[in-house]
UniProtKB/TrEMBL annotation:
Entry note: cofactor: Binds 1 [4Fe-4S] cluster.
Residue ranges occupied by any HhH-GPD domain in the UniProt entry: 48-196
GO biological process: one example: base-excision repair, AP site formation
Gene source species: Candidatus Chlorohelix allophototropha
Known function: DNA repair enzyme that has both DNA N-glycosylase activity and AP-lyase activity. The DNA N-glycosylase activity releases various damaged pyrimidines from DNA by cleaving the N-glycosidic bond, leaving an AP (apurinic/apyrimidinic) site. The AP-lyase activity cleaves the phosphodiester bond 3' to the AP site by a beta-elimination, leaving a 3'-terminal unsaturated sugar and a product with a terminal 5'-phosphate.
InterPro entries: DNA_glycosylase, Endonuclease-III-like_CS2, Endonuclease3_FeS-loop_motif, Endouclease-III_FeS-bd_BS, HhH-GPD_domain, HhH_base_excis_C, Nth
UniProt protein name: Endonuclease III
Origin superkingdom: Bacteria
Annotated NCBIfam families: nth
Pfam annotation, one family: HhH-GPD
Enzyme nomenclature, EC number: 4.2.99.18
Family of the protein in this entry: Belongs to the Nth/MutY family.
Length: 224
DNA sequence: ATCCCGAGGG
DNA sequence: CCCTCTGGAT
């Protein structure tokens, strides 16, 4: 359609085609680092993961699922008891409210099952596109979108995979320039690189194989 | 002081 | 668009 738009997509796609194969080499087996056994557990763990490390969530969920093994049990939890279990994950009042509201809706509107569409998932309290995409892409094997978290935002901005750094635009752009069957792995590999190399505070550009093709890496290393 | 696989409300 | 919610790690 618009020539400017075509030019824009061809530019970020060529950048993606340079960067992504290297991420595949670096992290062939990247995966969700939250521990879970089913969609309900991943949904709950992902709600807990907001502004919290996966490691801490994984320390919390064993007690959570022991006490509340399914949506029915979680929906009947005492708020104070639930809050005390999840407290160390932070935002514990909001998260407890989300877990309760989410599980109550699962029981009332979805016969105790986690729905498998974006439209239904984002109706759940405390669930928006990012959480829905994690559950869809990992526990349900459906790529309806791409989970965009703080790592994905940071790497897309540094590497230059989108011009407008908002979660919505980043997700649209990544969906546009990557094959659908890769969407879950695109997110995982960006996140793995973000955690291991492209840190928020001090990116390790000198040991990053992407640096020569990364605007931020070139700038920090004083290349070209 | 800054950041961690966000979401809801004003 | 902004703000708030929170504990833990560095």
């Amino acid at each position: 359609m618009e020539e400017v738009e075509q030019e824009y997509f061809s530019q970020i796609k060529s950048q993606f085609d340079i960067i992504y194969p290297r991420l595949v080499t670096l992290y062939p087996n990247a995966h969700c680092e939250l521990n879970y056994q089913n969609a309900f557990q991943l949904l709950a763990a992902t709600i807990l993961s907001a502004q919290c490390t996966d490691e801490r969530v994984n320390m919390t969920t064993p007690a959570l699922f022991a006490n509340y093994p399914n949506p029915q049990a979680l929906s009947e939890a005492q708020p104070e008891e639930l809050e005390s279990i999840i407290r160390s994950c932070g935002f514990y009042r909001n998260k407890a409210r989300s877990l309760l509201g989410m599980s109550k809706m699962l029981v009332q509107d979805f016969s105790g099952q986690v729905p498998d569409t974006m439209a239904e998932l984002i109706r759940l309290p405390g669930v928006a596109r990012k959480t829905a995409n994690v559950v869809l892409g990992n526990a349900l094997g459906k790529n309806e979108g791409i989970p965009v978290d703080t790592h994905v935002i940071r790497l897309v901005a540094r590497i230059g995979l989108s011009s407008q750094i908002t979660p919505e635009k980043i997700e649209q752009d990544l969906m546009h320039i990557s094959p659908r069957e890769e969407w879950a792995m695109v997110s995982h590999r960006l996140i793995w690189h973000g955690r291991r190399v492209c840190n928020a505070r001090k990116p390790l550009c000198e040991q990053c194989t992407l640096a020569p093709d990364c605007p931020t890496g070139r700038q920090i290393l004083n290349l070209k």
